[in-house]
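Sequence in, structure out. Go.
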Amino acid sequence: MKKLGTFLLAVVCLLLSNCNPKNKTEGLTAEACSTLEQFGWSKQKSQSIDSLIEKHIALGHIPGGTAFISKNGQTIHYKGYGKRDVEGNVDQKKDDLFRIASMTKAITAAAALMLYEEGKFSFEDSLATYLPEFAQPMILENKDSASATFTSYPAKKPILIKHIFTHTSGIPYAFQDDRLQSLFDKYEITEGFEERDITLKQNCERLAKLPLMHEPGKQFTYGMSSDILGRLIEVWSGQRMDQFFQSRIFEPLEMNDTYFYLPEEKFERLSTVYMSTDSGIAVTDYPLTNYPIKGAKTYFSGGADLSCTALDYAKFAQMVMNGGEYNGKRLLKQETIAMITNHTDSLDHMKLGQGFGVVYDSWHGNNRPSIGSHQWGGFFSTLCLADQEEHLIMILLLQMYPYDQDHLHGEFQKLVYNLTSNE
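Output:
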């Protein structure tokens, strides 16, 4: 899935050097650059963004959200809109927290690539070398949803580490196929958003008992591979996954508002998940939204469970856009970041690299991401796009499920490209 974001910097006139587009060593800030005109931006252009999002709020499509835009490593727009909590009449603030769901996958991939640089694995290694429970993969032949039984036959090839990175392992998500849900329920497999007492190790052991949807490497199947990658990070590093993320990514990037499970003092900043109904906005009826603040807090999904602010995700995205470096700290080598563009066929207009969606053809006419842009979205209607060619990052965080108004993300991206196209 999708991709990345960058952020703000610059403060006052006195810090003109902080507004230097070529300066990749400065950290991003929560305030827009004081010399917006230097980046072809203006308050009037920000008002165009305001008008778009406020229109959708007035129409009852969304209760609120946060929008972020940066250009050349500087923030040019960062703002919260509408309500974080409709029932409590609480305004949405730009530094509120959002469940980013599948946008977690890109961070998991980056963490694993750090361990690749340390020589902990090769992409051609068998998954079973590190997780022996996957030593004898089977291919699904038939299944009976009513009895939660299946028949299978042995796979001809082993699952390789590269298949885990590129979602070609054949390991699925059940939520995308109702016929699989009974099997996941029978084996008590979690897909994330978890409040039960379960660990990554236990979940992988249970997953290994189920058949693959196809031969490893044969095709793209979006699924649980990122959770398995999270478990591999634990094996390779000797640390629990959340601890590795904290010490190797969140602390160096100063992502101080990114968590699997929120500390109690930040509970109130978590945005409520809503849905759009014929009678207006209502709290979603989807039951799995309390995981960041309730439950056993023992499961760390590599594919789904992080919550953060737009600014924090932008810092991560800027690091990737900078070739692995941010604010004077190098997390990944330039050549490792370049591996992101080694992709496999997958989504419309996009291919999947080492954990990132990569735009490989054009759409939307002139108002579209450049080829090679990184993009990823999340289950609860979050989206980040980082356009390397344009030095542009845009993030729109909502909290909606189901989200049947996804044209807003498209309108947002198209408008941002339109407003920045003359630079």
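Check: Confidence is low (pLDDT under 50) at residues 1-23, 342-350. The CA atoms of residues 285 and 311 lie 29 Å apart.
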